[in-house]
Amino acid sequence: MCLGIPMCVEKIDGLMASCEAKGIRRQVNLFLLQHDPVTVGDFVVVHVGYAIQKMTSEEAGSAWALYDEMLIRADEQSEPITDE
After folding, report:
1. What is the chain's pLDDT, residue by residue, as a tens digit (84 residues)?
2. Closest Cα to residue 27, out of 15, 37, 36?
C-alpha cells in the first residue's frame, strides 16, 4: 500500500518546494503539477518526493486525522515481545 502525505508548501524555488508536515520538512519536486500552479501556503499530496495533487487545508487535516487514528489503532493492537 502506498500513502500520499499531505504537506504545506513553505518556499518555492523553480520546480522544487520546501514543504512541512507535523514538524518534518522535505524538498518536494513540483514537476507533476506544472499545469496547476502551486503557491506558498498551498497543501499538496506528496508521494516519493513528488507533489502529485493539490488539496485544501481541510482535506489535509482530514487525512492527518485518519493517519493519526491508524497509528493509534496499530499501537493498541501490537503486543509486546516477551521471553516466555
Report:
1. 678 999 999 999 999 999 999 999 999 999 999 999 999 999 999 999 999 999 999 999 999 999 999 888 888 887 666 665
2. 15
- Per DSSP, which regions of the chain are E strands? 5-13, 16-21, 24-29, 43-47, 50-55
Alpha-helical segments (H) within 1-84: 57-77
User: How far, in whole angstroms, is CA 81 from its chain's centroid?
Assistant: 31
Grid coordinates representing 29 are 519536486
Tally of CB atoms within 10 A around 42: 21
* Domain segments of the chain as ranges: 5-77
CATH architecture of the region 5-77: Roll (2.30)
CA 78/CA 34 separation, integer angstroms? 42
Query: What are 53's strand-pairing partners?
Result: 45
